[in-house]
Every structure is written in structure tokens, then in C-alpha cells.
Amino acid sequence: MLVVAPEAQGRGLGRQLTQACIDRASRDRSPIIALHTSPIMAVALPMYLRMGFIKHSDAPDIHGVPYSIYTRAVG
Q1: Least C-beta-crowded within 10 Å: which of 37, 46, 50, 63?
Q2: Which stretches of 1-75 are assigned E, i.e. beta strand?
Q3: What is the arithmetic mean of pLDDT over 13-36?
Q4: What was the pLDDT predicted at 2?
């Protein structure tokens, strides 16, 4: 799980952490990376889209909140 504390948001930390995950997947020679997110993540979801993730499929709701799987090629 990738989370940035509310008091630390807005400093680019989420993007840096996401990029570190992508870099790790690349280092490990993974062809693809996936994440599980929801439209309620109003800042994170647009960031993931800007970073090249695309919606792959819907996932089961959690406590009535819709979730989806997003993927992105690595490398």
C-alpha cells in the first residue's frame, strides 16, 4: 500500500514513491506493473493516469466503494 500522510501531501512524495515502485519493477525485469485504486482517490488517480497507467479492469467494491485495476508497461 502506498500512502502519503495528509500533512506531507502536495510535495510530490506520492509521485516519487510510485516512480520508485516502477523503477523496482524495471530492475526486477517485470514487463508490467499494476495498482488497485478508486475514483475516491481524487489526487492519486489522476497522478497515476499522468504517469501512464491505464484502466485494466474493475475490481470488487470494498464497503460499497468501487475499485479498479490499472496497469502500465515497465521499461
Answers
A1: 63
A2: 32-37, 54-62, 65-73
A3: 96
A4: 84
Exposure b/e, 21-42, CB count within 10 A at least 16 = b:
ebeebeeeeeeebebebeeeee
Long-range contacts of the stretch 24-29 (C-beta < 8 A, 24+): 25/74, 26/74, 26/75
H-type alpha helices, 1-75: 13-27, 44-50
Question: Rounded distance, CA 73 to CA 33, Å?
Answer: 6
pTM: 0.88
Q: Which domains does the chain have, with CATH numbers?
A: 14-73 (3.40.630.30)
